[in-house]
Specification:
This protein has about 120 residues and is mostly beta strands. Strands 2, 4, 5, 6, 9, 10 and 11 form a 7-stranded mixed sheet that branches. It has a 4-stranded antiparallel sheet with strand order 1-3-8-7, with no helix packed on it. A hairpin with a 6-residue loop joins strand 4 and strand 5. The chain is globular and about 40 Å long. It starts with a strand and ends with a strand. The mean pLDDT is about 95.
Length: about 120
């Protein structure tokens, strides 16, 4: 079992930065790929970024160059650094953990565990 807790969301202005945290308890992240997804009101949950169990990272085109995903193994935490935030980045951000494998990690259905989400609101 893995429990995930997100934190770091808030209300910011366009152009500002935030760093989200996803802390895991129960098992170490070494066995898992950890992804960030977001869901805006009235929209489906969408892939943002993933830190694969082997250290590879992937990003959605909409955040490439602005967001950075990283992992601190000692703290069992995955971070999502978000720069140059835009109003369209407003959403609830969720982290998920998927057991290591060859899944398409852009799909939410392959994740085994999810956190409760943290709200990010970007005002214009």
């Amino acid at each position: 079992q893995v429990q995930l807790v997100e934190s770091g969301g808030g209300l910011v202005q366009a152009g500002d930065s935030l760093r989200l945290s996803c802390e895991a308890t129960g098992r170490t992240f070494g066995y898992y790929s950890v992804g960030w997804f977001r869901q805006a009101p009235g929209k489906e949950r969408e892939f943002v970024a993933v830190f694969r169990w082997n250290g590879d990272t992937y990003y959605a085109d909409s955040v490439k160059g602005r967001f950075t995903i990283s992992r601190d193994g000692a703290k069992n935490t995955v971070y999502l650094g978000m720069n140059t935030l835009r109003p369209e980045d407003t959403a609830v951000y969720y982290c998920g953990a998927a057991l290591k494998g060859l899944q398409d990690l852009r799909l939410g259905s392959v994740y085994n565990y999810w956190g409760q989400g943290t709200q990010v609101t970007v005002s214009s």
